[in-house]
Amino acid sequence: MHPFTYQRATTPAQAVAAVAPAPGAAFVAGGTSQLDLMKEDVLRPSLLVDVTALPLTTISALNGGLRLGAGVSNTAAALHPEVAARYPAVSEALLAGASTQIRNMASLGGNPLQRTRCPYFRDPAQACNKREPGSGCAALQGINKVHALFGASNSCVATHPSDLAVALAALDAQVQVTGPNGPRTIAFPDLHRLPGDTPQQDTTLAHGELITSIDLPAFTGRSHYLKVRERASYAFALVSCAVALEMEGQKIRRARVALGGVAHKPWRVPAAEALLAGKKPSEKLFRAAAEAAFADAKPLEHNAYKIPMGRNLMERALLETSGLQPLQGPAGTAFAASVGGVSGE
Amino acid sequence: MATCYPPCAVPGSAAGRARVARSPHIPGCFAYAGLNLTCSMSDEPRLPLGEPAPDCLLPNGRYLHELRGQPVLLAFAPEEWNPAHAHQSTIFTQLLGAFDAGSSAPEAVVSCWHSLSCHGPVAAQFGVAGQRALLLLDEQGRLRWQTTIRPGHELRTGQVLAALEALRPDAPAPCAAAGEAAAGAALAPAGGGLSRRTFVTATLATAALLLLVGAAEAAGPVSPTETQPPMPAPEAATVPVTLTINGEAHRLEVEPRVVLLDALRENLHLTGTKKGCDHGQCGACTVHLDGHSALSCLTLAVMSEGRKITTIEGLAQGETLHPMQAAFVKHDAFQCGYCTPGQIMAATALVQDKQRRSAAEIREAMSGNLCRCAAYPNIIAAIQEIQTA
Ligand SMILES: Cc1cc2nc3c(=O)[nH]c(=O)nc-3n(C[C@H](O)[C@H](O)[C@H](O)COP(=O)(O)OP(=O)(O)OC[C@H]3O[C@@H](n4cnc5c(N)ncnc54)[C@H](O)[C@@H]3O)c2cc1C
Ligand code: SF4
Ligand code: FES
Ligand code: FES
């Protein structure tokens, strides 16, 4: 790890003032992504500004929804009774991610901003435009098993690893940020960007912009998160799917679906969502929606398996959310979220 | 051209010393098998490639020349843990891991790196002056590959494996020329039918010895031949930190980049907390922060100030084991015991909420603690006993 100086901020304004003017500065919250990558020599900030002492650790009611402070831990958010009851997709996504220890450390502000798990990004000996702009992309010709199906470019084919982000995208959460130019609100689906020619930029945040809260809008429908991974627990998603379903009588009033593990950002599927609106839930309908969602997938050499896997997963997530198929475990737990079960039984 | 590599000098012989003293410095930059790794000249050990290594007395009381007939890997690291070398242990852990993975010759691995030194006479004999370095000698005791691991950098074990691979009998002859050409030859990408893994396994099973040197200093080394000015580690600013560990306040001075795990183990000598992966993936370093389980390898010591830290050392009451520790003993919930402190810290944090969990729920909650010995069923049994007690 390269040497750096350390500061602990006690107010958001202080944190922003410390980071914004210093190009080499970064925030650190739980540190589970930031410090890991610093140990790998992938990140070399000259200044780390600790945001864990900021007064951003509460969950409160807001316009019929919930305001989740950016400093709330993944564990605290997932187990919060209001979150688990009203936004089970959020609890499921959080609890199906990482491990108990990491969830205790990780923060809601840091989680969506964690960097990709593309192995070439994490290895400074490899070419990677995200880590070192202009150096090339080793994944294009390399092992691209965990890489993107949608929205990738010739500069970068990485996927975003956060589970939480997928659930937040489906729920149209809002991100409150404050920065050198004051506060603003970002619709969650606009927080992350596609790689284009500048894959070094994961999000639309400016340097020094601090997330202060994530706001969940009022929502009375059902939501659910489903994740496939290589082992029963403690692994990143190969493919995941978050569904937010609002019904009107027997029919779907509005469906929102976001896919994880398939793009540089949580991948909303508007064509499938349009297909679902106004229809009665059925296996056939959900199959058709899943087909539509993956219609323009562009597989690389090693990741075509994600197309049938993702289609099946999305169909199943819709079936389970609508109640046509039972959840695999209690709503709001890792058991509901994990395809194949978590226990190894 | 085997004659260009005279056999290794006898311990402390004038010939050996002179040869080292006269050696030209090795070239500053070279590409390692496919990797474009640049080393600055001043960072490199100064023993030329192809030259016989000077002899020295090893920690186990034998001389280096007695190990002829097998490749020898010499590893140098600072004797004292130094936060400026935050990766020093990781490197050697990884290296041992890499060899272990394919080796059926465990007796060849001498893991005594905690007392290694890259300062002092033996190091100087090899041209190592304060840096972490790895040197590979062939069966005839000639230097075939070397690398310096600069502060803040990590060794890529692949490089070492590639260098070992280049020692195989059908690799290009190293004798063509000394210096740069030899480096190129020794590091040429593998040809032939053997995969890297197979070859390394074969090499290790038959011959290779991973020897970690340095305690040799204490054993009385042959006198130095040429002392080079030591390369001081870059001084980074330390900050005062007060950590409350197991109810006791500890004041220490650490660099901001020191993680809690290293502060516990290296500064405070609380070595019950283990370093497994150093990257948040195994749980061996689990401690409690304010009563919740957390990974000390991904927590900065400076960020732990003001928090209540509990380590495995803080569980027992004097000679009386914590009930969870006793349950682990009773259920034989470990084999080698390396993951055990982390397992117990995760388990004690888990049962605090007094919730009764099914075996499946325990497994899920404990999935962040890997056990290489797969003691899982017994770990679950120990936790179940405590939560029903
Ligand atoms: C072994 C392992 C397994 C994991 N598995 C999963 C998994 O399955 N699913 C999953 O989703 N995640 C997983 N993770 C990732 C983990 O969940 C994230 O690293 C974590 O949520 C990041 O939160 P943090 O608070 O630790 O962020 P940090 O590491 O502190 O910061 C991450 C980034 O966010 C920035 N940042 C932090 N807070 C703010 C803020 N308030 N405003 C602006 N910027 C900010 C930092 O500068 C940094 O760039 C895993 C991690 C590890 C190590
Ligand atoms: S996919 Fe993106 S992150 Fe991975 S190597 Fe290519 S540029 Fe880097
Ligand atoms: S040492 Fe492996 S998780 Fe910390
Ligand atoms: S007891 Fe050996 S790793 Fe768990």
Automatic annotation (TrEMBL), chain A:
<dbReference type="InterPro" id="IPR016169">
    <property type="entry name" value="FAD-bd_PCMH_sub2"/>
</dbReference>
<dbReference type="GO" id="GO:0071949">
    <property type="term" value="F:FAD binding"/>
</dbReference>
<dbReference type="InterPro" id="IPR036318">
    <property type="entry name" value="FAD-bd_PCMH-like_sf"/>
</dbReference>
<dbReference type="InterPro" id="IPR051312">
    <property type="entry name" value="Diverse_Substr_Oxidored"/>
</dbReference>
<dbReference type="InterPro" id="IPR002346">
    <property type="entry name" value="Mopterin_DH_FAD-bd"/>
</dbReference>
<dbReference type="InterPro" id="IPR016167">
    <property type="entry name" value="FAD-bd_PCMH_sub1"/>
</dbReference>
<dbReference type="Pfam" id="PF03450">
    <property type="entry name" value="CO_deh_flav_C"/>
</dbReference>
<protein>
    <submittedName>
        <fullName>Xanthine dehydrogenase family protein subunit M</fullName>
    </submittedName>
</protein>
<keyword id="KW-0274">FAD</keyword>
<dbReference type="InterPro" id="IPR036683">
    <property type="entry name" value="CO_DH_flav_C_dom_sf"/>
</dbReference>
<feature type="domain" description="FAD-binding PCMH-type">
    <location>
        <begin position="1"/>
        <end position="221"/>
    </location>
</feature>
<dbReference type="InterPro" id="IPR005107">
    <property type="entry name" value="CO_DH_flav_C"/>
</dbReference>
<keyword id="KW-0285">Flavoprotein</keyword>
<dbReference type="GO" id="GO:0016491">
    <property type="term" value="F:oxidoreductase activity"/>
</dbReference>
<dbReference type="InterPro" id="IPR016166">
    <property type="entry name" value="FAD-bd_PCMH"/>
</dbReference>
<dbReference type="Pfam" id="PF00941">
    <property type="entry name" value="FAD_binding_5"/>
</dbReference>
